[in-house]
Structures are given as structure tokens and as C-alpha cells.
Design brief:
16% strand, six-stranded parallel sheet, globular
């Protein structure tokens, strides 16, 4: 019989998912001897055909497949349901049908089409479905009631990088601290479900907070153009950042915002990579959704309704190093997979 394979075929280079894939690959190699078959195609033909052909070619003799679901992978899905019944594990990270409603244009149409054609069959014929929240488990079971659905967390691999701090950022942070402000950070994509509009609105109730915004996305220009004059001194936009520059922002901030509006795509429970990245750098996180109870117990997952005094207390009662010592062991991919070891060879 062939090898166990870990398969990812989606555009993930230079994103947080790239670090996730790399860390998962190493953890799966250790726990189940999985070899890695991963492609991050950038061009349409490569995305819809060439890379998937390569995956299927390498997977023909596999004994077991661990597959990270992506709706455009029609060829991989056809192969799994026809040739690998009960010999693959499928990882689901979101409410696919709800999220795909937000996609526009031809790409969005194709994603919805392929998802409707294959999602239910893939779930039914898998050995097990791995999901990252109780809500996604409910959604999977609504499509495939007899599936073996296991909840796993998202882990996080913290790499050693040299932080880089931009002069303008350092200057603005010094000015804010001289005024007694806390420094907040949002580093991500500006989509409706990120809820950056809610973050900016929150600043009005937190007069002693300065906000750094980093990243890009379709809502960016509209959000920045409508910021009240009274708030502009307390908001700094830095643009997209490298891994080293992000590390510099994490060192500069007192706390961070994760997504604040996942309810706009029907999500109430989530386990985002970005929240784990913030925690890995010792930052308390203001979350607009329900998180893993184990992380909530650390006291570093904060409600958007937290009062300014309590927020300041959480930010100042421990050093980042002390927080990292508590949280990093909880984010280990080895730990995540040890809880599902009966699924692996």
C-alpha cells in the first residue's frame, strides 16, 4: 500500500495559511508519516487544471489522505469520491455555503457550483471530517448526519524573525504612549466580516486607545475616507506588512482586534489563525465571536464590550513574555493532532 499524504491545493503563498500548512505538514509527518503534496497555484489554468492533475497523479497509490478542503478543487474531489472512499480525512475551516455567498464574479460562480456538486458526497464518503468549531460540526452533520465529525483547534507555528519597526509607526506609538494611550492593532484583510468599521466605532467609547491598521482589502478606502476628524489622530494605517514588519507591530501593540463581524456571514464560533498569531506574540485579543474555551480560560480572549478600565488592567498585569509562556503550548500542532491520534496510521 502507498504512503499517507497531506494534500493542499489552493492559493496560500505569502498568507497566514502558508505558515499553517508548513506547521501542519511537520506535525502530520511526525504523528502519521504523512508526505506532503502541496501546491499554491497563482494562475487560472494552473488552479483549475494543472496543479490538480499533479495532485491526483501523486495520490493514486496513497493509503490515506488528509485533505484541506477548497471548493475549486473539482478534479481532486472527483478522485476522492470515486477512488478513495473511506480512505481520506477532510478538513473544513468555515461554513462553505455561507461564505461562498459573498464571492462575486466568475470565480464566485465556479466556487458555488463546484461546492454544490461535491461537498455533500465528500463529507459522506470520508473516513472522518475535521472541523475547527462546534458550529461547523453542526453544519456538516446537517448535510451528512452519519459522518464521523471531530472538532480540532487551529494551531500556530511561531517562527524566529527579526522584528522591523517603521519610523513613522515608532514615532506615533511614542506620541500615544506619552498621552497615556493603549496601542491597539488590527492586522488583516478589510472585508465586511472583519468588522473594521465596528473597531473604529469602538474607538469612540475608548478615548485612551490609539489604533494601528495593517493590511488591505476591498473595504479599505471606504473605511479610511469616512473616519471622523476627531478620530484621525488616533488611527494610523501602515499598509500591507511583511512577516518581520508584523512582528514589529506586535511588539509595539498592547492588544489586538480579531474579526468583529463574522455574524455577517453567519458565523458565531470560530478559531482564526490571526487570533492565534496575536496570542503567540503575547497580545490579548478582542474577539467578536465565540472562541475555543481553553483559550478563553487564559483570560486573554476579551469581549468587544469590555470596559476601558478592565482592558487596561488586562494589558498591564502581565508582560508579553509571561503571556507567551502560557499560550504557546496551547497552540502546538503536535498537541492538536495528538487528540485525534486514532485516525492516523
Amino acid at each position: 500500500m502507498g504512503r499517507a499524504l497531506f494534500i493542499v491545493c489552493e492559493a496560500y503563498k505569502k498568507r497566514g495559511v502558508e505558515r499553517k500548512v508548513r506547521a501542519q505538514a511537520e506535525a502530520l509527518r511526525k504523528i502519521g508519516g504523512f508526505a506532503t503534496v502541496c501546491f499554491s497555484p497563482a494562475h487560472v489554468l494552473d488552479r483549475l487544471w494543472t496543479s490538480q492533475c499533479r495532485v491526483v497523479r501523486q495520490a493514486r497509490e496513497a493509503s490515506l489522505i488528509y485533505y484541506r478542503y477548497a471548493s475549486l478543487n473539482w478534479m481532486i474531489h472527483l478522485f476522492l469520491v470515486t477512488k478513495m472512499k473511506k480512505r481520506y480525512l477532510i478538513e473544513i475551516n468555515t461554513l462553505n455555503r455561507e461564505e461562498l455567498k459573498q464571492e462575486r464574479g466568475l470565480k464566485g460562480f465556479l466556487k458555488r457550483l463546484f461546492n454544490s456538486l461535491f461537498e455533500k458526497s465528500l463529507l459522506k464518503q470520508s473516513r472522518a471530517v475535521l472541523v475547527v468549531s462546534p458550529q461547523i460540526k453542526e453544519d456538516v452533520l446537517s448535510l451528512s448526519p452519519d459522518s464521523d465529525v471531530r472538532i480540532i483547534d487551529n494551531g500556530y507555528e511561531k517562527r524566529a524573525v527579526t522584528p522591523q519597526i517603521d519610523r513613522d509607526v515608532a514615532r506615533r506609538v511614542r506620541e500615544w504612549r506619552a498621552k497615556g494611550y493603549l496601542v491597539a492593532l488590527f492586522a488583516g484583510s478589510f472585508f465586511p466580516w472583519s468588522g473594521v468599521d465596528r473597531i473604529i466605532k469602538r474607538l469612540k467609547a475608548w478615548p485612551k486607545v490609539g489604533l494601528i491598521l495593517a493590511g488591505s482589502g476591498p473595504e479599505l478606502k471606504g473605511l479610511l475616507s469616512t473616519v471622523d476628524v476627531s478620530l484621525r489622530e488616533r488611527i494610523l494605517y501602515t499598509g500591507p506588512q511583511t512577516e518581520e514588519e508584523l512582528a514589529g507591530l506586535y511588539e509595539s501593540a498592547d492588544f489586538a482586534f480579531s474579526s468583529q463581524a463574522l455574524d455577517r456571514i453567519g458565523i458565531r464560533d470560530a478559531r482564526p489563525l490571526k487570533t492565534r498569531e496575536y496570542l503567540a506574540y503575547g497580545l490579548p485579543v478582542v474577539c467578536g465571536y465565540r472562541e475555543n474555551p481553553e483559550l478563553v480560560e487564559t483570560g486573554l480572549i476579551l469581549s468587544p464590550d469590555i470596559c476601558p478600565e478592565e482592558l487596561a488592567k488586562v494589558c498591564r498585569q502581565e508582560s508579553k513574555e509571561e503571556r507567551m509562556k502560557r499560550t504557546l503550548p496551547l497552540l502546538s500542532w503536535d498537541r492538536v493532532y495528538e487528540k485525534t491520534g486514532d485516525l492516523f496510521p
